[in-house]
Design goal:
Layout (H helix, E strand, L loop, with lengths): L11 H9 L2 E6 L4 H11 L4 E7 L18 E5 L12 E4 L6 H6 L1 H22 L2 E7 L26 H21 L3 E6 L2 E2 L10 H11 L3 E4 L5 E3 L1 E2 H13 L6 E3 L4 E3 H12 L5 E4 L14 H7 L7 H16 L6
Parallel strand pairs: 1-2, 1-4, 2-3, 4-5, 5-6, 6-11, 7-10, 8-13
Antiparallel strand pairs: 9-12
Bound molecules: nicotinamide-adenine-dinucleotide and uridine-5'-diphosphate (2 copies).
Organism: Cannabis sativa
EC number: 4.1.1.35
GO biological process, one term: UDP-D-xylose biosynthetic process
Length: about 325
């Protein structure tokens, strides 16, 4: 005979959790640039407990020093390419080097981080029933043939180039997210992040804003990679974190572009940095790297409509905020 099980009675533990509405949140890559700013914002909410998992490849404990020892915070040295067992309600999955010099340094490791790392975090989300957000990238659009880029564009990506470990890796990560969603009903969120800048960027990580600011502070020439007419759109990190949290908390899976639509050539960026930070430095032209996208600018219609989000900080206002942090870390005071 068929016996029907009575519905499970709510466990007292779960009930207590429900009333407090506490959230346990995992941030992979939380010791990095964007991750540590995200942790700062999440920790401001007293109902959040935050667990950071990081292998310190490009991140540092220093970025999280104000939280170490805090009762609602935990930091675990762990590589996401290995199985992880924790019990959480949400996962912000950021772990992956973002700067070209670091992701090209060990490309096989980069693709493992993107593919196996994302698979593991999805397996974890499936086991514990957590919602998971992936920080994908505008690089999924490759060297775009559509301008500006909206989320329907499938991209123009070289599958065998030196950037492929990163951009094809993120494309597979997005595919995995959607397959776990369709096949296993996992709650997913995908952010396509465009170039982001702000305090705590690695000083020597080779990205253009950190390079130019470090060069201007040190009084060295600003190195514009040829031709200098290539464009990017730069989002200040506090705006980025705000967009990521809205995406996580909202009802849309994405992918959704999160970025600042203000578009600048690299020559214009160099001129702005020179004007704002050190009018005495020279601007020089140097050789570029292969497969450098010629233009990039997000269409953020979807983020505006679905998340009520748009960036607030203009480039000219964000650059000086980053300068202060770079001067402190480089030990170079402003001359007046
Ligand atoms: P970051 O390099 O500062 O941070 C990445 C963090 O991940 C670091 O702390 C690093 O140690 C950690 N990490 C790397 N591999 C790991 C692994 N295998 N296991 C555990 N931890 C690992 O970079 P970021 O700028 O903060 O970028 C964060 C995320 O946002 C990345 O997923 C990146 O692809 C994405 N993104 C960033 C930008 C940008 O402009 N910064 C643009 C597009 C997408
Ligand atoms: N996984 C993990 N933590 C968990 C559950 C799974 O790291 O709490 C990893 C697990 O090691 C596996 C991956 O996630 O390699 C995918 O898990 P899933 O259960 O989807 O697939 P399966 O284990 O059946 O291959
Ligand atoms: N770039 C530059 N000078 C530098 C570093 C980078 O002109 O010192 C250029 C680079 O050629 C590219 C743009 O800045 O066109 C953005 O490069 P970055 O590595 O910051 O990010 P991504 O290429 O991933 O957008």
């Amino acid at each position: 005979s068929v016996t029907t099980k009575p519905p499970p009675s709510p466990s007292p533990l779960r009930n207590a959790k429900f009333f407090q509405a506490n959230m346990r949140i995992l941030v992979t890559g939380g010791a990095g640039f964007i991750g540590s700013h995200l942790v700062d914002r999440l920790m401001e909410n007293e109902k959040n407990e935050v667990i950071v998992v990081d292998n310190y490849f490009t991140g540092s404990k220093d970025n999280l020093k104000k939280w170490i020892g805090h009762p609602r915070f935990e930091l675990i040295r762990h590589d996401v390419t290995e199985t992880l067992l924790v019990e959480v309600d949400q996962i912000y999955h950021l772990a992956c080097p973002a700067s070209p010099i670091f992701y090209k340094y060990n490309p096989v490791k980069t693709i493992k981080t993107n593919v196996i790392g994302t698979l593991n975090m999805l397996g974890l989300a499936k086991r514990v029933g957590a919602r998971i957000l992936l920080t994908s990238t505008s690089e999924v659009y490759g060297d775009p043939l559509m301008h500006p880029q909206d989320e329907t564009y499938w991209g123009n990506v070289n599958p065998i180039g030196v950037r492929s470990c990163y951009d094809e890796g993120k494309r597979v990560a997005e595919t995995l997210m959607y397959d776990y969603h369709r096949q296993h009903g996992i709650e997913i969120r995908i952010a396509r992040i465009f170039n982001t800048y702000g305090p705590r960027m690695n000083i020597d990580d080779g990205r253009v804003v950190s390079n130019f600011i470090a060069q201007a502070v040190r009084g060295e020439p600003l190195t514009v990679q040829a031709p200098g007419t290539q464009t990017r759109s730069f989002c200040y990190v506090s705006d980025m974190v705000d967009g990521l949290i809205r995406l996580m908390e909202g009802d849309n899976t994405g992918p959704i572009n999160i970025g600042n639509p203000g578009e600048f050539t690299m020559l214009e960026l160099a001129e702005t940095v020179k004007e704002l930070i050190n009018p005495d430095v020279e601007i020089i032209s140097v050789e570029n790297t292969p497969d450098d996208p010629r233009q990039r600018k997000p269409d953020i219609t979807k983020a505006k409509e679905l998340l009520g989000w748009e960036p607030k900080i203009k480039l000219r206002d964000g650059l000086p905020l980053m300068e202060d942090d770079f001067r402190t870390r480089l030990g170079v005071t402003r001359k007046n």
